[in-house]
Amino acid sequence: MSDHAALDLATGFAEHLADWARALGAPPAALAALRRVGRQLALAGSAGHVCVPLAELAEDGDVAGLRATLLASAVVDAGPPPSGSARPLVVDADGRLYLRRHFDLEGALADLLRARAAAPDAVLDEEAVGALLARFFPPRAGARPDRQRLAAALALLRPLTVISGGPGTGKTTTVAALLGCLLSLQPTLRVALAAPTGKAAARMLEALRARAASLPAALRACLPEEAWTVHRLLGVTATSGRFRHHGGHLLPFDVVVVDEASMLDLALATSLVEAVPPGARLILLGDKDQLAAVEAGAVFAELSAGSRWRASTAARLAALAGAPPVADGEAGALPDSVVWLTESHRFAAGSGIGRLATGINGGHAAATLAWLRDAADGAVQWLDDDGRQPGAALLAACEAGYGDYLEALRCAPHDPATAFAAFERFRILAAVHDGPRGVAALNRHLGQYLRARLGHAPAAGSAWYPGRPVIVLRNDYVLGLYNGDIGLTLADADGRLQVCFPAAGGGFRTLAALRLPEHETAFALTVHKAQGSEFDAVLMVLPDATAAVLSRELLYTGVTRAARQVTLAGSAAAFAAACGRRTLRHSGLAARLAERPSTTVPQPPSGY
């Protein structure tokens, strides 16, 4: 959504609130406050905030006065609101103002997570489990604790495990070994693998199969054969968009593993946790330093901000993992639930991409850029490009990046396997969609370049041409296409253009272009759209230094989509602006997790 559209919606929402309050007899001061505060709250929601502190809304610093004025409006409840209230806004005891929907979702998620954290440990044969952990996580040289083994031990013991780690820290390796342990103990265990996007789900399954190659054949046969998007896992209905699985109709699984959990927004996270049976294990994998979800909330970042351990759990983990658990970060919102994986096996700390990611996360803009400009490591490259329009060198780099794809289209114009293999090696990422340095402009340039090089003149009035890559922007449950799916336009043997998509069971399926749901060209993607993906090489185009979207998380997420080589193109000012700005999303989830325990009777995960 554009800034202008968001502003129009926010203004309309604020006027609606004021009209509602006026009809209920609210005083003029309350109406004026609602117009101002309602607009700011709506804009904050479009920026991903779950709530806004009254301290940021009180113009004269009088928080108590603003609270009293809002409560006098007849459309704002003091939280928790009375049962049956339909007032659209809620202000809690700590001075956070919410849309009613966000307040209810956050409270429900906090209750569900608190109940899981309060559940007793699984009853395990610790000798057998210890032997399995030693088998799947052999002893390592050195004094450092094996955090992968610790994470697996925690997931065996507890009903909720949150594992945070950057690229190459072994999240998938840990899960493969963990599933080996679980399935060794109970081969009939029902396991679900899921991720927020189809691309991330496919990558998860592919990586798990690769890591599981060393497992005995009998165990490999027990592993899941597919990975789901979270929406498909929950059984979203094509007509209403609601989920078939929820608190009254739980998922039929004993273990649910969700990768790229940083992409879960508040609403989806709540629906997911609600649908997981109380006695099942829920394992959330992600990277706390990545971008949060597009919609409201930063659930994974809040849950993985730190860890704390009860003495009884710490003692059992020490016995199972061979070393006591490590306390990381701040005091965690949930006890006995969080492990950080900190050692990258893909990027050594001193390697190009690893060093770049570390410098970005640390906010060391000047030192990192100075090193990047002089880096001898071919894995990283800086391209000075500080104009409003992309310069000639940047456009040439964009074109060169798709050289393999161009050659594949020339040599095998009808072969989707060859085309996809070449196309997926490289991607251009941008921080913004619109504007001269955005996705739309870069895609227009590359479309013209590809057609010219291949000699394809587009048909009159048509956007389609051989080689055009597209990304689906809206779920179509009838066609089985989902937001983020990538397709390639290829001609069949008779010259008819069709769009090819990877099929879930392997191979490809083709669709006529006219049947596709909303989509756009995909030579370049926003960093948000690229989450959950990995490419051999990435060219990241930075916007103007004044762009509001620039942040440390955006830069880190873009850089770490690259497995082997990354080029950053932009101005020093834009790089410094991104490194110097952390994304802060207002939320009360951590505070609500610290409230009194839920009255729900917790259940331990199934034991052996």
UniProtKB/TrEMBL annotation:
Any one cellular-component term (Gene Ontology): exodeoxyribonuclease V complex
Binding, ATP: 165-172
Record-level Gene Ontology MF annotations: 5'-3' DNA helicase activity; ATP binding; ATP hydrolysis activity; DNA binding; exodeoxyribonuclease V activity; single-stranded DNA helicase activity
Keywords, sorted A to Z: ATP-binding, DNA damage, DNA repair, DNA-binding, Exonuclease, Helicase, Hydrolase, Isomerase, Nuclease, Nucleotide-binding
One example of a Gene Ontology biological process annotation: double-strand break repair via homologous recombination
Keyword Methyltransferase: no
Entry-linked Gene3D superfamilies: P-loop containing nucleotide triphosphate hydrolases
InterPro entries in alphabetical order: Coronavir_polyprotein_1ab, P-loop_NTPase, RecD, UvrD-like_helicase_C
Reactions that this protein is recorded to catalyse: ATP + H2O = ADP + phosphate + H(+)
A Pfam family per the record: AAA_19
Coiled-coil region(s): none
Source superkingdom: Bacteria
Protein EC: 5.6.2.3
Residues annotated as domain UvrD-like helicase C-terminal: 522-568
Transmembrane helix recorded as keyword: no
Additional free-text comment from the UniProt record: In the RecBCD complex, RecB has a slow 3'-5' helicase, an exonuclease activity and loads RecA onto ssDNA, RecD has a fast 5'-3' helicase activity, while RecC stimulates the ATPase and processivity of the RecB helicase and contributes to recognition of the Chi site.
Functional note: A helicase/nuclease that prepares dsDNA breaks (DSB) for recombinational DNA repair. Binds to DSBs and unwinds DNA via a highly rapid and processive ATP-dependent bidirectional helicase activity. Unwinds dsDNA until it encounters a Chi (crossover hotspot instigator) sequence from the 3' direction. Cuts ssDNA a few nucleotides 3' to the Chi site. The properties and activities of the enzyme are changed at Chi. The Chi-altered holoenzyme produces a long 3'-ssDNA overhang and facilitates RecA-binding to the ssDNA for homologous DNA recombination and repair.
Family classification: Belongs to the RecD family.
Quaternary data: Heterotrimer of RecB, RecC and RecD. All subunits contribute to DNA-binding.
Protein name: RecBCD enzyme subunit RecD
Organism per entry: Pseudothauera lacus
Lineage: Bacteria, Pseudomonadati, Pseudomonadota, Betaproteobacteria, Rhodocyclales
